[in-house]
Specification:
The protein has one domain. Strands 1, 2, 3, 4, 5 and 6 form a six-stranded mixed beta sheet that branches. It has 100 residues and is mostly beta strands. 9% of the residues lie in helices and 48% in strands. Strand 1 and strand 2 form a beta hairpin. The protein is globular, with a radius of gyration of 13 Å.
Length: 100
């Protein structure tokens, strides 16, 4: 059985190739929160603690229903921690996630 999604990333803000912050929805029991802003440090901590975040968008008028995309992963590369949606990333990169 697939692991439950703990959060959905809706938009991202980058600075110098690193995530500055993301706009997300987080799981709160059986439902999801309103939009929350997570900085890079908070997102990285959640990923390292085993939380499952995916990219996606909320479906209008359907509360906790999302169109989900790719899973986020925490990667180590040359003593740096990266947050990406694919293994070959050289900097923080969330594919198909709009900037805000």
């Amino acid at each position: 059985m697939a692991k439950k999604i703990d959060g959905v990333i809706e938009a991202v803000r980058y600075k110098n190739g690193q995530i500055l912050m993301v706009r997300a929805y987080e799981r709160r029991g059986a439902t999801f929160s309103d939009r929350v802003l997570l900085d890079r440090k908070m997102l990285l901590e959640r990923l390292q603690n085993g939380k499952q975040f995916v990219t996606g968008t909320r479906e209008e008028f359907l509360a906790g229903t999302f169109k989900t995309g790719k899973s986020l992963m925490s990667l180590k590369q040359d003593d740096r921690e990266l947050i990406a949606t694919h293994q070959s990333a050289t900097h923080d990169e969330l594919q198909e996630v709009p900037a805000f």
